[in-house]
Design brief:
Strands 1-2-5 form a three-stranded antiparallel β-sheet. A two-stranded antiparallel ribbon has the order 3-4. Strands 6-7 form a two-stranded antiparallel ribbon. By secondary structure, it is mainly alpha-helical. The N and C termini lie far apart (about 105 Å).
Length: about 375
C-alpha cells in the first residue's frame, strides 16, 4: 500500500469532511442558530430602539406607536420567549391562525406579521448580512389577501350639514379640512404665520401634541384656498399675529384623537352620516378636484402625494418630472377659485377667534382682550 503525499492527505481530509456535510452552508447556519440564545423578545427591543433613533429615513412617532402595540398586545405574548432562530414559516402560520381567530382584518394581520419579519431580519453579522435569512411564505401561512379596503368619503351635502352643526374653532377646522384636503397633522400644525394671502403653507405637522416634519418631502407645499374660505379663515384669525390657528386652552395644538372623539364622531352619529375619520375629508377633496378636471400634477401637489406605502419614492413619468407645479402659484390660485369648494359655507361668517384662556380687563373704560 503506497503512502499518500502531504498534499494528497490534505485533499483526502477535505473530501471526508465534505462527505458528511460538515463544511456546508446549511451545516454552518445550523450551528450558528443552535448556539445563539437570543429570543424574539430581546431582539425586538434592539430593533425598536434602532427604528426610533435611526438617521436614515426616520420613522414617524405614530408608526412607532403602532409597532409597539403590535408587539406588546400580540407578538410578545405569543412568541416573545421563542429563540429567534426558531421563528420561521411555521411561526408565521401559527400567528396568522391566531390573528384570524381573534377577528383581525386582513390588513392588520399582514401588518403585525410584517413586524415579526422585520424583527427577525434585523439581527445581522458584521457585514450586515442577516443571521437568520428567511423567505417568508404567506401562501403557506394561509394569510388572507387584502381586498378592497373600506374607504368612506363625505358628500357635499353631508359636509354642509356637518359644518352647520358647529360654531367657532370646530366649524373653521371642518371647513378647512374639506376645502384644502390637508392631513390632520398638517392642519393642526398650522400657525398664523402660515396663512399667506389665499394660501396656507405646510411646513410642519403635529402628532400627539408634538411638532414634527411633514410626512414626506412632497408634503412641504402651498395649498391655495377659494377666496371665500381664505376670507373666512382670515376673519377667524382676527388680529392674532402668532400661535397655532387651532389651539387648545393652553395654546398648544389640538390633538387629533380628541377632535375625532369629542367633535367629529358624535356629530356624525347625530346626523346619521357614516362614521369615518379625517381621510374622509381628503377623499372628498380629491374627488372634487378630479370631477372638475384638475390636472393630476396639481392634485398630487396640493395633496402632497409622492410616496408609496413602503416609503420609497414613486417612479415618476417624464411629464411629472418636467411639471413644476410648485413654481406656478398664479395657475394654482386660478384653479382654486374656478372650481369652488363643493359644499355650502355657513352663514353668517365666523367672528375672530380668541383663545379660551383670555380674560377681559377694563382699561380707562375700554375693554381690552388680554391673552395669558
Amino acid at each position: 500500500m503506497s503512502l499518500l503525499t502531504k498534499s494528497e492527505r490534505e485533499r483526502r481530509k477535505v473530501e471526508i469532511v465534505n462527505s458528511f456535510g460538515a463544511n456546508s452552508v446549511e451545516r454552518f447556519s445550523s450551528v450558528v442558530e443552535g448556539e445563539s440564545g437570543i429570543t424574539f423578545r430581546e431582539q425586538s427591543k434592539v430593533w425598536l430602539k434602532h427604528m426610533k433613533t435611526r438617521k436614515r429615513k426616520p420613522v414617524k412617532p405614530a408608526t412607532i406607536v403602532n409597532w409597539e402595540m403590535a408587539l406588546n398586545k400580540w407578538l410578545l405574548p405569543l412568541i416573545g420567549d421563542l429563540p429567534l432562530a426558531s421563528v420561521k414559516n411555521g411561526t408565521l402560520k401559527m400567528l396568522v391562525s391566531k390573528f384570524d381567530e381573534a377577528g383581525l382584518s386582513p390588513s392588520s394581520i399582514r401588518t403585525y406579521c410584517r413586524v415579526m419579519t422585520m424583527v427577525v431580519g434585523s439581527l445581522k453579522d458584521d457585514d450586515a448580512n442577516p443571521i437568520y435569512p428567511r423567505k417568508w411564505d404567506y401562501e403557506f401561512a394561509d394569510a388572507p389577501e387584502i381586498g378592497e379596503q373600506r374607504r368612506p368619503s363625505f358628500t357635499g351635502e353631508e359636509l354642509t350639514k356637518l359644518i352647520a352643526e358647529f360654531k367657532g374653532q370646530e366649524q373653521m377646522a371642518l371647513v378647512l379640512f374639506a376645502a384644502s384636503g390637508l392631513r390632520a397633522g398638517e392642519l393642526f400644525g398650522l400657525e398664523v404665520k402660515h396663512l399667506l394671502g389665499k394660501s396656507v403653507r405646510v411646513q410642519q405637522s403635529v402628532w400627539s401634541g408634538d411638532i414634527q416634519k411633514p410626512k414626506t418631502k412632497s408634503a412641504f407645499r402651498f395649498v391655495e384656498l377659494h377666496s371665500s374660505v381664505a376670507t373666512m379663515l382670515r376673519n377667524f384669525i382676527g388680529d392674532r399675529k402668532e400661535g397655532f390657528v387651532f389651539a387648545a386652552r393652553n395654546g398648544s395644538p389640538l390633538r387629533q384623537s380628541n377632535f375625532i372623539r369629542r367633535t367629529l364622531h358624535p356629530a356624525l352619529k347625530k346626523l346619521g352620516i357614516e362614521k369615518q375619520g379625517f381621510h374622509g375629508f381628503r377623499r372628498f377633496r380629491v374627488t372634487h378636484l378630479e370631477s372638475n378636471n384638475v390636472p393630476q400634477a396639481l392634485i398630487d401637489y396640493w395633496t402632497g402625494h409622492a410616496k408609496k406605502g413602503d416609503g420609497e419614492d414613486v417612479q415618476k413619468t417624464m411629464n411629472q418630472i418636467y411639471t413644476k407645479m410648485d413654481k406656478d402659484a398664479a395657475f394654482r390660485e386660478d384653479v382654486a377659485e374656478r372650481i369652488g369648494i363643493g359644499f355650502d359655507l355657513p352663514k353668517p361668517s365666523l367672528v375672530p377667534s380668541v383663545p379660551r384662556n383670555a380674560v377681559e380687563v377694563d382699561v380707562e373704560n375700554a375693554v381690552e382682550i388680554v391673552v395669558k
